[in-house]
Amino acid sequence: MTGEGRREGALAGKRIVITRQRSQAEGMASALRQQGATPILFPTIEVVPMPDMQHVDRAIDELNQFAWIVFTSVNGVSVFTERIEQRTGQPAQFGSARIAAVGSATAAELERRGVTPAFVPSEFVADRIPDGLGEVKGRRVLLPLAASARKDLASELANRGAFVADIALYDTVAPAVDADALAEIERGVDAVTFTSSSSVRHFVDMTVERTSQLLERAIVVCIGPITERTAEQSGLRVDLVAEPHTTDGIIAALVTHFSDPQPSIADLAT
């Protein structure tokens, strides 16, 4: 849940909420501790494979027919490759398809599994993918996505003449509320970080009508423009957007913001 941050570093004493799923939160928490912060883990996302995977299995059987497979998240890489491994009993292979990845974390997860993506956009948003795939007219493109993912990328590729297989691979659901972590947020926090639109929506749902009260003295930090838009549509005031759009970018934005001397929530409480 929380960690005792060192009282040193650019984020000394700052209490910072991490809303990403618990299995992916420790790396970010560790980086925050290195900057002196106290991370508060309040998971708002749990990844659940779709109950019916027949459409995914059909795509796996036809991998050689796709010119490109585009992964937009670490979760997409994990669920899809694990499904291949379950069906074949071997490390995931993608046939002749070329692989595109949105974001350094997604690319790193592919590399960890022995796959080098052919294209990673310099700006880590899905909107930059179509230009990087080259001519796609008449070619098949596979998009393994979350059930709640936006359809913009699929629509743009289809507009360019691609035959797009847009498959729902997993869903993101809200886990049970961690009462201890919520109590820590109620004590006061300096920042709340959001790494996806789902994390925003679930945070608002999980805190019900108390969201504004809980965030009254905290800055809101989003990983990128899509998450920012969701936060604003959910009634949140967004103070910072990471550049680049990564968790390291979030931490860099926090460090820059808190560089000027100012009291932390921990200091105000003493």
Return residue spans where pLDDT drops below 50 for at least 5 consecutive residues. Answer: none
The total number of structural domains is 2
Q: Total helix count?
A: 12
CATH architecture annotation name of the largest domain:
3-Layer(aba) Sandwich
Secondary-structure element string: EHEEHEHEHHEHEHEHHEHEHH
Derived structural class: alpha/beta
What's the end-to-end separation, in Å? 21 Å
Shape: elongated
The total beta strand count reads 10
**Average pLDDT level:** 91
Strand order of the largest sheet: 2-1-8-9-10
The CATH topology of the largest domain, please?
Answer: Rossmann fold
Question: Could you characterize the architecture of this molecule?
Answer:
The chain is built from twelve helices and ten strands. The protein has 270 residues and is of the alpha/beta class. It has two domains: 15-45 and 175-268, Rossmann fold (3-Layer(aba) Sandwich), CATH 3.40.50.10090; 49-171, Rossmann fold (3-Layer(aba) Sandwich). The chain has a five-stranded parallel sheet, sandwiched between helices. The chain has a five-stranded mixed sheet with strand order 3-7-6-4-5. Strand 6, helix 6 and strand 7 form a beta-alpha-beta unit. Helix 3 packs parallel to helix 4 and helix 8 packs parallel to helix 10. The chain is elongated. The two termini are 21 Å apart. The mean pLDDT is 91.
Précis, in short:
By secondary structure, this protein is an alpha/beta fold. The protein has helices at residues 26-34, 54-61, 74-88, 104-112, 129-132, 152-159, 179-186, 197-206, 211-214, 225-233, 247-257, 265-268, and strands spanning 15-18, 38-41, 46-49, 68-71, 98-101, 140-146, 163-173, 191-194, 219-222, 240-241.
